[in-house]
Amino acid sequence: MADGSRDPPKPPASPPTLPEEEHGERLVELHASFRELVTFFCTNSTIHGTIRLVCSSQNRLKTASWGLLLAGALGVLYWQFALLFEQYWRYPVIMTVSVHSERKLFPSVTLCDMNPHRPHLARHHLRVLDDFARESIYSLYRFNFSDSMDALGAEVPGPEPAFHLDRRIRLQRLRPLDGQNRVGFKLCNSTGGDCVERAYSSGVVAAREWYRFHYINILALLPAAHEDSHGSHFVFSCRYDDRDCHAQHFQTSHHPTYGSCYTFNGVWAAQRPGVTHRISLVLRAEQLDHLPLLSTKAGIKVMIHPQDHTPFLEHQGFSIRPGTETTIDIREDEVHRLGSPYGQCMDSTGSVDVQLLYNTSYTRQACLVSCFQHLMVETCSCGYFFYPLPAGAEYCSYMRHPAWGHCFHHLYQKLKTHQLPCTTRCPRPCRESSYKLSAGTSRWPSSTSADWVLAVLGEPSRRNPCISLAKVNIFYQELNYRTVDETPVYSVPQLLSAMGSLWSLWFGSSVLSVVEVLELLLDAIALTLLLCCRWLCGSRGQPRAATRVHPPSQRPASGPVAADTTSNAPGPGCLHLPRCCRDFSRSLG
């Protein structure tokens, strides 16, 4: 101005402040406190009973009662959930039976003449065994059957045998047990210090088992191709679905106890599925050249089994009496088992921890036999004669392995008491067929028609007691079959349905109500993180003394700024959250 006056000094500028945050609508907004969060949930949730916590907030008794009811319902719900999951993790199954009408192939039929015969290479050995048997039975029962034995076993002397009968294993009376007399024989180890008794209350069974033990010791020394055949006289006639079947339609084999066996060729039958599925056979049961101590029965052993399965006649099958016509009705059942985790079974693409010794389809019996034979070779250094041999092994005979009978007995007892790992190594097949049989018999041929029937069949004489005929008819009882399927009690959809039923029972809500609970948990977690972040920032930004220096433009004109001028006002970093927490709270609202 002209009078030289100066402009009044400008007031000092206030400290810079951060821009005020906007409080508009956010994408995600949180409540200010947990109380507000819970109140909003209880007011707007679709879960029954939660609104009572808000409506009765002025009545503490009702609030506490409804709180206890909700807590109790929640506890019972999760207790039932625990029981449900416990049952689910047991993986129980139920069996479902259904009937199908598709055409089925005819099964395999194995027939044996039950006439174990004397191999030509072992006739001299068997004569020595027969003499020993005659002596043993005479010493026990004072019975001598030398005439019949000589008639059946007459033979021109052959070369010196390479087998020496072990007369220490003799048929004898053993100590009575519970006041009952017992007959049997003893099997000892290599030193003779440990012996096991094969004792039987029936002398007939004891004599047969004793003779059978010596018999397989003789057969074990014969070459693999020693098996003799009774020729083609066993099957007189055969017709399948009104077509003739001949010898080439049968597979032949030999069983040490059941004699010559014939298996109806399932491959030939599969090419002719037919409609009636019926096979009719006329068979000849003979006991010429018989071993009376090895087999005490006369007749025909029959077993019906699936195609490409090994017949185990010792465990299955039935006998047909000579001089009868037997009609057998078949009904097939298929079992379909579930694999892991519902159970253990063997499917067509799986493998087992046992080298199978049979070149057929997998069955549990074939696996158990193979497993036992492998353990027999490992433990006793030889294989049991009734089962196939692993590569490089030999059959047991006390000529080469004096104590094999003792070893076999202990190993077989462990198998029967499930002490061997074979049971766990050999699961059941996942798909298995079984046949339910019903049979009826009648006399055939009748007394009035026997003469001309035998003449037409070419039987020379009907007065020979060692030769008799039998007729067998086998057909499907029904052209449909049943399947038995394992079905899980709780599949995943059924488990979810059961959980939903329990949730609806106790809270009257649905899946969307569960989503509301999840939303509540997420909001609570986010609110907890935000409050923790504010608390941490507040603990770091406590008020502290600081020297405050104004910029030159804001210094007072009256004099210099005092160096000791201080301010107790908190700095900008203490008034607001750090940038990270500020951005986090801004994003959450």
UniProtKB/TrEMBL annotation:
Entry's localization field: Cell membrane
GO molecular function, one term: ligand-gated sodium channel activity
Reactions catalysed, as given in the entry: Na(+)(in) = Na(+)(out)
Gene3D superfamilies documented for this protein: Acid-sensing ion channels like domains, YojJ-like
Location (main, coarse): membrane
PROSITE patterns to which the protein is assigned, alphabetical: ASC (PS01206)
Matches recorded under InterPro entries: ENaC, ENaC_chordates, ENaC_CS
Region (Disordered): 1-22, 544-570
Transmembrane parts of this sequence: 66-85
Keyword Transmembrane helix attributed: yes
Pfam families for this protein: ASC (PF00858)
Annotated membrane topology: Multi-pass membrane protein
GO CC, one annotated term: sodium channel complex
Keywords: Cell membrane, Ion channel, Ion transport, Membrane, Sodium, Sodium channel, Sodium transport, Transmembrane, Transmembrane helix, Transport
Keyword DNA damage: no
Record function comment: This is one of the three pore-forming subunits of the heterotrimeric epithelial sodium channel (ENaC), a critical regulator of sodium balance and fluid homeostasis. ENaC operates in epithelial tissues, where it mediates the electrodiffusion of sodium ions from extracellular fluid through the apical membrane of cells, with water following osmotically. It plays a key role in maintaining sodium homeostasis through electrogenic sodium reabsorption in the kidneys. Additionally, ENaC is essential for airway surface liquid homeostasis, which is crucial for proper mucus clearance.
Protein name from the UniProt record: Amiloride-sensitive sodium channel subunit delta
